[in-house]
């Protein structure tokens, strides 16, 4: 599977992920939309493709989709260093990527292992989640108030978020640092809310190219920006430092909140 990019997630037969109508599926470039896997570099990279090689490299299917006894569907993918990856990034590594589909949830469990006996490796890791939305201007994102962020639209200047909820009404490209484990996004598909719960991902990237930047992206329709919002869990403002023989783990859960549907945590607190 090229790039291990999740390109569709349906809840009640409604698509939750945005994929551009101009996206390429030829395996030569990253898919514009869905949930690409960013590793080992976030952003421009002098050694290879932007956002690293994981989203354009063929992954192994370790375990094909299988229904478990509890009704969940699970699939496991893996990626190891090879001649192609070592031509850009000369490290040994093994990534295990476990996906679990539930009725209203999609789980992502990631493990990165450094098998070297001598070399410490550093890397970025991010799930570049493109959400499908009716109108991005009506979306609100919680969990960012008080967080410091790097604004890539203003020469990487640093600011502190003063808003209780973040809205997007212009070209937005921000790396929020030390964000909490949970964000709620309002007005996704059918006006519902989505919960993003993350573990070991200290950063949250918010991105929308808006009008002018959308026109500069060849595989993105000029008129598509109002219908997408990227809310990306990652470890990008500082790298993961992985010592020889050790592993790094991170996870993300996307959950559609349907009226009357409360989380297990909320139930326990009552």
TrEMBL record:
Keywords: Isomerase. One of its GO terms (molecular function) is carbohydrate binding. InterPro entries: Aldose_1/G6P_1-epimerase, G6P_1-epimerase, Gal_mutarotase_sf_dom, GH-type_carb-bd. It catalyses: alpha-D-galactose = beta-D-galactose; alpha-D-glucose 6-phosphate = beta-D-glucose 6-phosphate. GO terms for biological process: galactose metabolic process. One of its GO terms (cellular component) is cytoplasm. Substrate binds at residues 32, 50, 55. The active site is at 128, 232. This is glucose-6-phosphate 1-epimerase. It comes from Musca domestica.
């Amino acid at each position: 599977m090229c790039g291990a990019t999740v390109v569709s997630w349906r809840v009640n037969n409604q698509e939750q992920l945005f994929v551009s109508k101009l996206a390429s599926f030829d395996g030569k470039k990253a898919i514009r939309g869905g949930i690409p896997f960013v590793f080992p570099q976030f952003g421009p990279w002098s050694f290879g493709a932007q956002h690293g090689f994981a989203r354009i490299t063929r992954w192994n299917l370790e375990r094909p989709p299988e229904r478990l006894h509890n009704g969940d569907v699970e699939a496991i993918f893996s990626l190891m260093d090879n001649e192609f990856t070592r031509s850009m990034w000369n490290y040994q590594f093994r990534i295990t990527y476990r996906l679990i589909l539930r009725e209203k949830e999609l789980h992502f469990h990631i493990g990165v292992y450094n098998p070297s006996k001598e070399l410490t490796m550093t890397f970025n890791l991010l799930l570049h989640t493109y959400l499908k939305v009716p109108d991005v201007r009506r979306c609100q994102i919680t969990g960012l108030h008080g967080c410091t962020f790097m604004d890539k639209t203003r020469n990487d200047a640093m600011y502190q978020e003063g808003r209780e909820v973040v809205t997007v009404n212009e070209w937005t490209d921000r790396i929020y640092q030390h964000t909490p484990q949970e964000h709620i996004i309002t007005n996704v598909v059918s006006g519902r809310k989505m919960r993003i719960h993350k573990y070991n991902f200290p950063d949250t990237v918010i991105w929308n190219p808006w009008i002018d930047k959308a026109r500069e992206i060849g595989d993105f329709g000029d008129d598509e920006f109002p219908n997408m919002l990227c809310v990306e869990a990652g470890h990008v403002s500082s790298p993961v430092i992985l010592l020889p023989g050790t592993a790094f783990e991170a996870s993300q859960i996307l959950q559609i909140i349907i009226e009357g549907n409360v989380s297990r945590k909320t139930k326990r607190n009552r």
